[in-house]
Amino acid sequence: MDTTQSAPSREGVVHFFNRIAPTYDVINRMLSFRRDVAWRKRLVDAIPANRPISLLDLATGTADVLITALRRRPNLTRMVGIDMSENMLSQSKTKLSRLGLSDTIELRQGDATNLAVEDAVFDAVTIAFGIRNVIDTDAALREMWRILKPGGRALILEFSLPKNIILRHLYLFFFRHVLPRVAGLISGDAKAYEYLNKTVETYPYGAAFTQRLSNASFVDCSCKPLTFGVASLYTGQKIL
User: Fold this and answer.
1) What pLDDT shows up at residue 3?
2) Which of 56, 108, 155, 190 is the most buried (most CB within 10 A)?
3) What is the pLDDT of residue 6?
């Protein structure tokens, strides 16, 4: 994977997100040059628009995916966000209250690898920049498949590594040296962003990740690189 980094443990990752929750949105917008906004729009635009859709967003964070979906998909009939981090959910609730959406979007605390959700109840499940942080990727993918209705779609947005060697070196320099320092100054927690950097570098992407989707029983799995491969949008469908 063209990296000398070793994969960090995901144990206790919720504590990182609890600490950085108050500055999470500000840092995301600044350090992605607002590309995170465009990427979420691409994710949401892959949600079917021609029929009523119930949507579950995992690792929902500050509810950006759900808010974007509400604005771009009027056919959504139910929206639920689940996250392990209590402080992230607190930020979500504040944001939704400010936007007058508290009664429109349901938030729950929970684990993506063991969802307290019945089988086959959602038409779409999304997760943006969260799948690489779960303790067991394959368990999370199996849970996504389980809670989807037949014909339902999984949509996963995640960082990846550019194929172009020059872009990859610039990208890794930014992630290793610039992002932790700048994010650390703003959040007061550089260690958390060093952890995030290592997860990006060591996590499977492209064909390796689409294979994980296939192994979890999804079909028609695909990967769409975004912004020269800095991020990727993965899709998979559930059929019986």
Assistant:
1) 46
2) 56
3) 64
- CB burial of residue 190 (10 Å; 0-12, 13-18, 19+): middle
For 55, the enclosing helix (H) or strand (E) is strand 53-58
Residues 6+ apart with CB under 8 A from 208: none
* Contact between residue 50 and residue 76 where contact means Cβ atoms under 8 Å apart: no
Q: Which DSSP string corresponds to 190-225? A: HHHHHHHHHHHHHS--THHHHHHHHHTT-EEEEEEE
Distances (CA, A) of 95 to 88, 89, 189: 11, 10, 22
CATH 3.40.50.150 fits 13-237, yes or no: yes
Rounded to two decimals, the pTM is: 0.93
Domain chopping of the chain, boundaries = 13-237
